[in-house]
C-alpha cells in the first residue's frame, strides 16, 4: 500500500494508466467469459449430439445455428412436430432412433439446399459416401463440393421456372393447419383468403452431380480425380404469392431443394439378383440380341394375354 501511495504520488498519470489497463483487461476477460458461456448454451440447443457440439468453435456454432433457423422457415410444420415430441422423453428417443435407422436403410444421404446454394441440412450418412462430415458441409455452399463443370447444372436445378400443372404437387401450408384449429368463422374466412394468396408447390428434380470424395480408394467406390458421381432425386419447394384465383398467376419464390443422394453402383458388379418379374438378355454394341433368358417366353405370353 505504501508503495502504491508512493508510486501514485511520484507518477500520478502512470499509475492511473496502469489502473485503467487493469480494469480494461478484467472487463475484456469478463466479456469473453460471458460470450463463451452464451456460445456454449447456443451450441447445446443445436439438434446435434453433445459430443459434437462440445467441440465446435464459435464460427461453426453461428454457421450451424443460421442453417437450422433457415430450415425452420422452409419446414415450419416440422418445428411443431419436434416441439410436441420433445414433451415426452420416450417419444423423443424413439423418434431419433427411427430416424437414424431410416437413414441407414436408405443407402444414401438427405440434403436441403437454399436457393443461393448454401447447404441448410445434410444427414450424417454423407460421411459414408463422401468422407465429409455433417458439420463441415452444413452452412457452406454446395458449389464448393461439386465439380466446376456441374455448377451450371446445379444453378439450373435451383432455379424455379414458371410451373406447369403436371410437374407440380400442391403442398401443405401452415395456414391449413390453423384453419382446422380456429373456431371463429370470420377468422377462418380470413385465413382461407390468405391461403389463396400463399400456396406451396413441389417441383420434381432428378440430376447427377460429381461431388468431392475424400474417402480412401478402397472405400470410395467409383471415383475420378477425387470426385464421385451422385444421383440426386427430390423436389424444389416453391411458394406462390397470387392475387388471382388461377394457381399459375402471381409471384413465385424458390424456398429450397430437398433431395436424396445415392452413389452409383460399382462397375465390378458380376452378380445381379433376378426376381420373378425379371429376365436376362445380352446384346451387341449395335443392340442386336445375342442371348435371351428362357423366362422371356413367359413374359411374352403374359404380354399377349394382357393385350387381348
Q: Could you characterize what this model shows?
A:
Residues 79-87 and 164-182 have low confidence and may be disordered. The protein is an alpha+beta fold and 308 residues long. Helices cover 47% and strands 21% of the residues. It has helices at residues 2-10, 12-44, 50-53, 58-74, 76-86, 89-106, 126-130, 134-137, 151-157, 174-181, 185-197, 217-220, 296-307, and strands at residues 109-113, 119-122, 168-170, 198-212, 223-224, 227-241, 251-263, 281-283, 289-292. It has three domains: 2-43; 109-263, Beta-Lactamase (2-Layer Sandwich), CATH 3.30.450.20; 272-303, no CATH class. Residues 19-72 form the BHLH domain. Residues 95-158 form the PAS domain.
Give me the CATH fold name of the largest domain. Answer: Beta-Lactamase
Q: Please report the number of helical segments.
A: 13
| CATH architecture group name of the largest domain | 2-Layer Sandwich
Mean pLDDT: 76
Subcellular location: Nucleus
Main location: nucleus
Pfam family, one: PAS
Biased composition (Polar residues): 1-11
Amino acid at each position: 500500500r505504501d508503495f502504491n501511495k508512493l508510486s501514485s504520488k511520484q507518477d500520478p498519470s502512470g499509475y492511473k494508466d496502469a489502473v485503467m489497463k487493469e480494469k480494461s483487461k478484467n472487463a475484456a476477460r469478463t466479456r469473453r467469459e460471458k460470450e463463451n458461456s452464451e456460445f456454449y448454451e447456443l451450441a447445446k440447443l443445436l439438434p446435434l449430439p453433445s459430443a459434437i457440439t462440445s467441440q465446435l468453435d464459435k464460427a461453426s456454432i453461428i454457421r450451424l445455428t443460421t442453417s437450422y433457423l433457415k430450415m425452420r422457415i422452409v419446414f415450419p410444420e416440422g418445428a411443431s412436430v419436434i416441439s410436441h415430441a420433445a414433451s415426452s422423453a420416450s417419444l423423443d428417443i424413439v423418434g431419433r432412433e427411427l430416424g437414424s435407422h431410416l437413414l441407414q436403410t436408405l443407402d444414401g444421404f438427405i440434403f436441403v439446399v437454399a436457393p443461393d446454394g448454401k447447404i441448410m441440412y445434410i444427414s450424417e450418412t454423407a460421411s459414408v459416401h463422401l468422407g465429409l462430415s455433417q458439420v463441415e458441409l452444413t452452412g457452406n455452399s454446395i458449389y464448393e463440393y461439386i465439380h466446376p463443370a456441374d455448377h451450371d447444372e446445379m444453378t439450373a436445378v435451383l432455379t424455379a421456372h414458371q410451373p406447369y400443372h403436371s410437374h407440380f404437387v400442391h403442398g401443405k401450408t401452415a395456414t391449413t393447419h390453423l384453419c382446422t384449429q380456429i373456431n371463429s368463422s370470420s377468422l377462418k374466412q380470413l385465413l382461407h383468403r390468405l391461403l389463396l394468396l400463399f400456396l406451396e408447390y413441389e417441383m420434381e428434380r432428378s440430376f447427377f452431380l460429381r461431388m468431392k470424395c475424400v474417402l480412401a480408394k478402397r472405400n470410395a467406390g467409383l471415383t475420378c480425380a477425387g470426385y464421385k458421381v451422385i444421383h440426386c432425386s427430390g423436389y424444389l419447394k416453391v411458394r406462390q404469392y397470387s392475387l388471382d384465383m388461377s394457381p399459375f398467376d402471381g409471384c413465385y419464390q424458390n424456398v429450397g431443394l430437398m433431395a436424396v443422394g445415392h452413389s452409383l453402383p460399382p462397375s465390378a458388379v458380376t452378380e445381379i439378383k433376378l426376381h420373378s418379374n425379371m429376365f436376362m438378355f445380352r446384346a451387341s454394341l449395335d443392340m442386336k440380341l445375342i442371348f435371351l433368358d428362357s423366362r422371356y417366353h413367359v413374359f411374352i405370353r403374359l404380354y399377349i394375354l394382357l393385350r387381348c
